[in-house]
Design a protein that fits this description.
There is one protein chain. The protein has 427 residues and is of the alpha+beta class. It has a single domain, classed as Anthranilate synthase. It has 8 helices and 24 strands. The strands form 2 sheets. Strands 2, 3, 4, 6, 9, 10, 11, 12, 13, 14, 20, 23 and 24 form a 13-stranded mixed sheet that branches. Strands 1, 5, 7, 8, 15, 16, 17, 18, 19, 21 and 22 form an 11-stranded antiparallel sheet that branches. Strand 18 and strand 19 form a beta hairpin. Helix 2 packs across helix 8 and helix 3 crosses helix 8. 50% of the residues are buried. The site of ligand ISC has 17 residues, from strand 12, strand 16 and strand 24. The site of the ligand C=C(O[C@H]1C=CC=C(C(=O)O)[C@@H]1O)C(=O)O has 17 residues, from strand 12, strand 16 and strand 24. Belongs to the isochorismate synthase family. This is isochorismate synthase. It catalyses: chorismate = isochorismate. InterPro entries: ADC_synthase, Chorismate_C, IsoChor_synthase.
């Protein structure tokens, strides 16, 4: 296995430093951050209209292999140390900010951290603009204008990815047999679906639809990976760390009273509670060395999404090492949680690469942003897809435990494809 880091030339010694300027924007003419996004290398991290959008590439690093996180962290520390910043807003997410998307597995592990030329953020009543250029180049008089509306994808058709449904169910049955034999407690198995259009797809179309239909999720796009994830791997802000753990799922029926009854069943289901407990334990154990105190609720709540309901737990803690450990390092420590890997983690990840039959790429890896202080938000790239020209590869996975039923897991995976699938369709 190789580990490479290929920084852009501009981050190397001797190159001009990044010149960063954050100014407050009067928010009245900025209705929707997504409406500002042009086609040129767009990045997105939004929830309920707040968050960050950006475009253009001022600097980036591509990393791979088992050191993909460490190489990106080192580059970020060097890049921030060499930058010249004037920040009139001084909130988390202002000043120099990078967006990242990291591979699920070590091999090949292709990952990216990118600093946009323009970033626009919103938090509560505050809206800001950050410009990043090399010394000598001037973006500081950038004016915010509405972008053109993206076109809808043309003639989308869907096909099986690496495995068809029947074959995937045999893989699930194999995993259940291994769990019953005592090899492991839980493994998360994923599958993919390929969508093809007759013309290149503008990612801004599905982004708008996802943000509209899944406002309770984090709608993201970094370097071709997009989606709307309900799961926050780690958020760190001014010494406080939080993580939203999801595991245990039930599909919605569209009938509200029936869904309420199903939510009650989910909250009592021993299969789902057990699966959930594994995931919460893996997050709490990974955060523990970084926290001076932690709050781990005893029982989960039910998170209602338009397509599925999940058992959810919000873990919170006070970190004691914010000066030396960034949010991206916390994300590395938490990855892969039992919600996307399994328990025990090494056995589960080995089983995934043995039987899943595909490379997950950056699906189920950390995706998000980080500022110069190391504060940031890293979600798990679920309900996501990778886009290349006219082709989109959708991903969905399911936690498998001893009494999982392959047919029910297949149906659950189909429900998890729905957000991106619908977002590619007509308005
Ligand atoms: C792996 C996925 O979901 C995880 C997150 C929440 C609930 C899950 C479950 O109940 O199986 C999965 O562990 C996915 O959506 O691709």
């Amino acid at each position: 296995m190789t580990s490479r880091a290929t920084p852009d030339a501009a981050a190397e010694p001797g190159q001009a430093p990044l010149v960063v300027r954050t100014v407050r924007l009067e928010g009245d003419h900025v209705d929707s951050l997504l409406g500002l996004l042009p086609t040129q290398s767009p990045v997105t991290w939004l929830r309920r209209g707040e968050g960050l959008v950006g475009w253009g590439v001022a600097a980036e690093i591509r990393t791979s292999g088992p050191t993909r996180f460490a190489d990106a962290v080192k580059w970020w520390s060097e890049t921030t140390a060499r930058s010249v910043v004037r920040d009139d807003v001084a909130e988390p997410g202002t000043g120099l900010v990078s967006f990242g998307s990291f591979a699920f597995a070590d091999d090949p592990g292709d990952s990216v951290l990118v600093v946009p030329e323009i970033t626009i953020g919103r938090r509560g009543e505050t809206t800001w603009l950050t410009t990043v250029s090399r010394a000598g180049l001037d973006l500081l008089d950038h004016h915010v204008t509405l972008a053109d509306d993206p076109p809808a994808p043309v003639d989308i058709s869907f096909a099986d990815g690496a495995l068809d449904g029947e074959r995937w169910m045999t893989v699930v049955a194999d995993a259940v047999a291994r769990i019953s034999a005592g090899d492991l407690e839980k493994v998360v198995l994923a599958r993919d679906l390929i969508a093809t259009a007759t013309a290149p797809i503008d990612v801004r179309w599905p982004l708008r639809r996802l943000a509209e239909s899944y406002p309770m999720c984090w709608t993201f796009h970094v370097d071709g990976l997009f989606g709307a994830t309900p799961e926050m791997l780690v958020r760190r802000e001014r010494g406080l760390v939080t993580s939203r753990v999801l595991a245990g799922t039930i599909r919605r029926t569209g009938d509200d009273s029936r869904d309420l009854a199903l939510a009650a069943t989910l909250a009592r289901s021993s299969k789902d509670l057990e699966e959930h407990e594994y995931a919460v334990r893996s997050v709490a154990d990974a955060l523990d060395p970084h926290c001076s105190s932690m709050n781990v609720p005893e029982a989960p709540f039910v998170l209602h999404l338009p397509n599925v309901m999940h058992l959810a737990t919000d873990v919170a803690g006070v970190v004691h090492d914010a000066g030396t450990v960034t949010s991206l390092q916390l994300a590395e420590a938490l990855h892969p949680s039992a919600a996307v890997g399994g328990t025990p983690t090494p056995v589960a990840t080995a089983l995934i690469s043995e039987i899943e039959g595909m490379d997950r790429g950056r699906y189920a890896g950390p995706v998000g942003w980080m500022d110069a202080s190391g504060d940031g938000e890293w979600g798990i790239a679920l309900r996501s897809a990778s886009i290349h020209g006219d082709t989109v590869r959708l991903f969905a996975g399911c936690g498998i435990v001893a009494d999982s039923d392959p047919e029910a897991e297949l149906a659950e995976s189909q429900a998890k494809f729905v957000p991106v699938r619908d977002a590619l369709g007509p308005a």
